Amino acid sequence: RPWREQGVIQDPNAVENQTQLMTAAAPDADALVLLCAKRLDRLRREVSGFERENDKWEFGLKTIEIYALWAERRGFEEIAQQLRDEWFRIGFPEEYEDVLRDVRRASGRASLYEARTYLRQMGDQVAQVLVDQGVSPAAFGVIPRLKWLYAVWKKAVREEVMPREISDLFGLMI
């Protein structure tokens, strides 16, 4: 099955203009988090209720191309990725399930939560080994990373491979 993305907003100036407008309207972090949380909630509850397919696509594309970009630029990477993953789940359900299955299989865990928990535990073990070897905890950090599903899909599309063929689905950054 071809992995193709559909319907992106074609005018990058329109996206940039709306992002700047939203930044001016909500300059503080609390307002940004609340607006993105509201958008995520609406995405989860309402997108399946749109009468016209175009309305659903427009709502979803604004979510990933404006709200997610806005959150990312303000330093809220996790919120941005949650917005993208939720749109991916709703907009491309078959592809979402394929990627989810491949990530679960690669991690050897039943859920993404279990995979993230396992990576955190591995990170703690690596940190302890470094401390036991005499490395000061102030000299390093161990950051577990499980690639978000939307990012896996985008990479698969870009590289024209299946998600299970991507080698950096998860890892530890030291």
Helix and strand arrangement:
Blueprint: H1 12-25, H2 29-46, H3 53-73, H4 77-91, H5 93-107, H6 112-132, E1 143-146, H7 149-159, E2 170-173
Antiparallel strand pairs: 1-2
Helix pairs in contact: 1-3, 2-3, 2-4, 3-4, 4-5, 5-7
Description:
The protein has 174 residues and is mainly α. It has 7 helices and 2 strands. It has helices at residues 12-25, 29-46, 53-73, 77-91, 93-107, 112-132, 149-159; strands spanning 143-146, 170-173. It has a two-stranded antiparallel sheet with strand order 1-2. It is globular. The N and C termini lie far apart (37 Å). The model is unreliable at 1-10 (pLDDT under 50).
Summarize the structure.
By secondary structure, the chain is mostly helical. The protein contains 7 helices and 2 strands. It has a two-stranded antiparallel sheet.
